[in-house]
Each structure stands twice: as C-alpha cells, then as structure tokens.
Amino acid sequence: MTAALESVPVAFSDAQRASACAHCGSPLTDASGDSDFCCTGCAGAHAIIKGLGLERYYALREKAAPAQVAPEDAVDWVEFVQADVQGTCRAELLVDGLHCAACLWLIERALRAQPGVTQARLSATTRRLTLAWSGPAEKINDFAVLISRLGYKCLPMTADGAERAGNTEERELLRAMGVAGFAAANIMLLSVSVWSGHVGEMGAATRDLFHAISALIAVPAIAYAGRPFFRSAWAALRRGRSNMDVPISIGVFLALVVSLAEVARSGPHAYFDAAVTLLFFLLIGRYLDLRARGFARRTAQRLVAWTLRPVIVLTDQGTCQRPAHRVAVGDRIIVAAGERVPVDGVILDGQSSLDVSLINGETLPQAAGAGSTVFAGTINLDAPLTLRATAVGSSTLLGEIARLMEAAEQGRDRYVRLAERVARWYAPVVHLTAFLSFLGWVFIGDADWRSALLIAAAVLIITCPCALALAVPVVQVVASSRLMRRGILLKSATALERAADIDTVVFDKTGTLTLGQPRLLPEDAADVEALELAARMAARSRHPLCKALHAVRPQVMPLDGVEERPGQGMLLKTPEGEIRLGHARFAGATATSKSEHSELWLARPGHAPLCFRFSDTLRPDAVEVIARLRDKGLRLIILSGDHSTAVSAIAGALNIFEWHAEADPRAKAEMIAALKREGRKVLMVGDGLNDAVALAAADASLSPSSGLDIAQNAADAVFQGGKLSAVEEFLRVSRRSRALAKGNLTLALIYNLFAVPLAIAGFVTPLVAAIAMSSSSILVVLNALRLGAGGRKGATL
Amino acid sequence: MTILLYLIPAALALGFLGMVGFLWALKSGQFEDLEGAGQRILFDDADAELREKRSGMS
To answer: Do residues A254 and A457 touch, judged by C-beta distance below 8 A?
Structure first.
C-alpha cells in the first residue's frame, strides 16, 4: 500500500519540483530536466492558471493534498478489480464529493490521461466511476490516489443484490412506460377519430375497424406494460391483503374484457384508450417514486472505507499485517502516526496525542501515554503507539454505536407513508362502489349484465387513482430536485414527510454549528514576521492547530530540519538557539492564560514567547439562521460531547438557552428519545460518529457533507456547503411539499366526488373518461410544480 | 376512405419505430446518467486530441 502511495508524489514543494511535473506532480520522464512539465497539456494548464493569476491553486492544493491521502484513506482496491483474458482490467468505484460538470470533467480527463486507461466514465447521477485499463490490476491504487489528490474521495462499490434488483426494476418500468406510451398515443389517435365520428358521419364498419386495430395494439401492450401492477396486486391478494395495485389491475383488466366484448358484438363504446392511458400515467408515477427511493438506496450503500485497512500485529516472530476483523483480544498492535486506531485497547508503549472527535466531538487532541485507554476510530496524531487490544470488531465502542444505530433505524422504518395510508382505505371503497353499481344496475336498474358490467368498469376506470398515484411522487420529485439545487441531498424517501411535523431542532456543536476546524484568532495574526516563521515551522505537522496555523500562510515554504516532539510541539535548532512552537510549557512560557481558546506558543532566541490562540468558528450564517428558526417557534437545543465551557460560549453567541455538554453517543440518543416521549417531533443535525445514534433515533435528521460517512448514512439528508441555512430550507421544503401532497390528494378526491356519480349513472363514455383522467392528472402535476417555482421566488416557511 | 389503408399502417409503423428507438436507447444505457448527459455538453475538448498529445509525447 505504502509503495503505491509513494510512487505518486503528494506535495509539490521546491525540493520535489525538480523531478515532478510542476502542474500535475507526475514524475518527469524527461531526464534532461529541461522542462518543468510532464506534457504539453500540463504546461498549457499551468500557463492558463498562471495567466489568470490563480497560482494560489497550487498552494491550496499542496496544503490539501497530504490530508487527502492520509493513511486512513489508503485502501487496497485490487480486490475490486475484474480482469479479463485480454489483460483488460475493469473496476467500478464510487466517487464522493462531486458538485458540478467541472468535477466530472476533471476526474475523467485526469484518468484518461493516465497511460493504459481505455475508459473512464463517471455518472453524475449515481457517482459511479467505470474504469477500464490495460496492465496490472494494482494500477487501481494509483488511480485512487490520483482521485483523492484531485480532492475527491473514492469509496468501494459493492453491487449487492438490492442494488441490482433496483436497477432492473427501474429499467423494466422504463421499458413498460415506453410500450404504454406508444400504445396510448396510437390508440388515442384512433379513438379521437371514433369520437369525432360519433358526431360526424363515420360508418359502423370504419368504427369497428378502428376498435379492432385498437384491440390489437392494446392487448399486447397491456399484457406487457401492466405486469408491474399485476404482479404486485397478485402478491397482495395472495397474502389476503389489498393495495393500490389491486383496483388498478382489476380496473384495467375489466376495461379490456368489456371492450373486447364490445368489439365482438360491434358495440359503440370501447375503453382501450382509457385502459392504456391509465397504465401510462400510473407507470410515470411509479417510475418517479422509484427514482426518489433509488437515490436513498444508492446513498445508503456507502461503506466506511477505513475498516478495510490492514492492521499491523506484533507477534513473537515479528510483525505481520492482518485484516481488522482477524485481530483478537489480547493481540499487540502498532498504530502508526496519522492512522486510525482499529480496536479498543490500552496503550503499552508510546507517547502521542489522539484526535478523539469521532467519539465525543471534542476538537482538541488529547494526550495519551502508556496505560491510557483508546477507542477504535480515534486518530493517532503524533507518534507510533503499541496497544493491547481489549475489544475488537463489533464489541468495540464503535461497534456498539453501529448496533444502537441499527436498532434506532428500525423504529424509523415503520413509518407509514401518506400515500400508503390513503391507499389502505381507498382500495376497498373503490371496489365496493364498483360492485354496488353493478348490482344496482342489474337488480334495480333492470339493465342486462353486459351494460351493467360496462358501467362497473367505467366506475373503476374513473376512480382508478391516476391523479392519486401521481399526487405524491410528483411532489416528491419536485421537492428533491429543488433541495438538490440548494445542495441538499435527500437520502430517505419518507424524510420529507417526517420532517414536516418537526417542532424541535437539536444541534451538535462541533462541525455542525461550527465549521469544526480551529481558526487563528485575527488579533493574534498581527506580528507578520513571527506568524510566517510559525507557519513555516508548522507546515509539516499533522496536528490540527499546526494545520490551522499553516492555513493562515499557506504559501510559505516549510523549514528544513524541524523536529516534531510528540505531544509537545515543533523544534528547530539554529546557530542562534532553539526555536520552539508548541505547548506553553514546551515553549518556556510561564504566563498561561486560562481561556477557552486552544493555544500554540512560539519561542525564539531574543524574543519573548508569543501566543497564538485558536477557536472553532461558527458557520457564517449560524446566528441569523438560529434566530429565524427561533422566530418560527421551534425549540432549539445544543447537544454536544464537548466541555461545557466551549458549549456555553457557542450557546451564548447563538442565544440558545437549552444546551447539554459532555454527552456521549448513548446520552445523546437517550436525550432524543426523552424528547420524543414528551411528544416532540425532533430534527437532529449532526456530523460525527457520536451523533450517529441520535441521528438515527430522531424523527428526521440532517448531516453536513463534511461529516463522517457513518453520520451521513444515518441521516435522512446531507447538505453541502458551509451554510447552516440548509436546515431552514429542508424544513421549509418539507412543510411545503406535505401541504402540496395533501392538496393534491384533496384535488384527486374532489374530482372523484364529481366523476363517480356520473360513472354510476352511466354517463361516462370513453370520451368523458379520457377527458376527466387527463385533466385531473395535469392539474395534479401543475400543482406539484408550484413547489419548484415557489423556491425561486423564495417562499416562506 | 381507402386512403386509411395506407395511413393507418404508416402511422402505426412510425409509432413503432419511435418505440423501438426508445427501447434501444434504454438498452444502450442512455438513460443511466441524465444529469451527466446535460453537463457533458459543456466539455468541448476532444478526447482524440488528448490522446494524440500523449502518444506524441511518449
């Protein structure tokens, strides 16, 4: 693994520039050293970037690059490669972090420029990258590193049964839709001629011919396009239940049979057009519904990549690498600096600091030495550690969180959707009405059973929930595309409905209300000379505070010869004396101010120690968004794992009176459960592993895209960008879309109230049925589209 | 009315052609990435050019 990493230079500082392309960082093949670039393309790109005055791009990239290929992302991808006999390898990866066309372009072009790559195609919808290349399968690791260097994340793609089944279903629906559309258009063409013939002078023979042709088209089309409905209706009936598909199937089937009988006896009315158009509209609704759910399905599939990383185990014979699931309790393992701890354990040897934000949301690294307990999922920052594993796999704290999360999610799966609730009572009522009108005409109206059946079929066709089937899916599709435009990706199809009732919003602090990264306080950046020196000292360190310091002056060159003292700071020996950057004690400063800020001290020969203070900054619009949410009458709560001083500072800044600090994952979930017991409908907004259980337990949940995969998986929706206004938008759209869905259902119902008596009375000819059906469907779709239009005008909650 | 004998088959054949076209497009994966297809029109650089440069280089 490391070999693959090292083969591609990661940062392109001056020292490396001699042997690497100044633009893309690929090793230079031209040994003469005449050119700084590997190819004319790179030279061109460099010239363009420079010409636009965007050289900062390189500095930014240099800064970002090492973080992107931190060892925890280094997965061995070879097992995902499929090689064929001709020596062509194929692989499918999921690429995370796509935003726009430029992302697609960049990734595809960068990969195609690699030697041997024959195909690189990235889907913007599924974010799936299909790669084909000739050469060894191991090349995939280089490709993965290249993608992460470009600033995107690769995730393994597991095409499991559910995914494949979903894809086939989607295709089948589309095919059925195509067939139904063709049949509907052509039958309608013939039907319109027949209808106009009723008032004109079309002869009976021509009419019968048209009906016969319609029958020839309709029978195979319905047999093909109706299968999704017939199957589901049959499955429901066999289990002794009824669903929306039962009246649809019976209605279509009855209409077909009655119409065929009419053709056989040269009758005037045939409902072929109604039956096929009905199927066409219903298939559209079904397809939209599946698309909305398909997105959720695809997102939920993401795996947490780092669990695939091998673990270094110390044995009596030396060291060996093992997959994480084969490490046993009692094994001694080595965790290198910068790696994630794979198990729960006790430190046997080593002195380092740990990034524990994953577990409890604390921003500052914690010092750890021999005897300290560490948890799986934390990141070892400074120096290698030797641990004895005390819990592995699912018995780690991480595993327990995953279990709690699953349990919480099961509760949410039981939510019954609005459309389903309507369908439950709608189907029996429809059946009863049709049956009663049949009986009524036979026994009271003295009609022959044939025309009574024709009326019963008309009732079923009219009530067939064309508008009803479109009512909710169309709203859902419009809502999710509106949210998508605002950078909010909806993962769960029922999320919008659940979010509409929210009256309480619970926020995590770090990474949710704040950006989750320490920033240098502006007043400490006054001494430019000292700041640059400190930034050059800090440039090579992975410590969050050092990274923050370097971020202020990203263009400075790292100083050579700087040593990192684990858990203490950076040290540089110069002829004039030592320069130190680190803890107050390490830098020899005595006046330690007791503030809530984290600090780095710089000690130079001949100068008094200088203090750099950092704080985690609020998201830029947090104050306004919180104020607006409070004005809407929502109860706002902060629930953080951080210390109470840090939490109270943020709560004070945001004017949130209800806050809880030092909450571990279980406590967070219990807090949510307690709120729900009070009858509150809770929206949880959080980004960390420590929030995952709470996210799953809440009525609805949101996670920023900067959050952890686990949190994003647990959340209903993921929002991109640095702005908290996504929370507001999510709530607004969910309320609007529920109102619209209900409005649509009401519209469909009102239409039925008018049309059903007409149908029972026997006034519904095929022409009336066609008009009623199309008009109600169009009305429902137009009503749903108002949601998208409202978004542009900036509708209010 | 004998014109109908030509017109109706012609109309049906055209419709059928349309359906076959749709099914072909579906099968060849043109509906897999609707978003991406819309974005790809913005890429105006030719792949062939890129390859030429590469092969000229190495």
So the answer is: yes
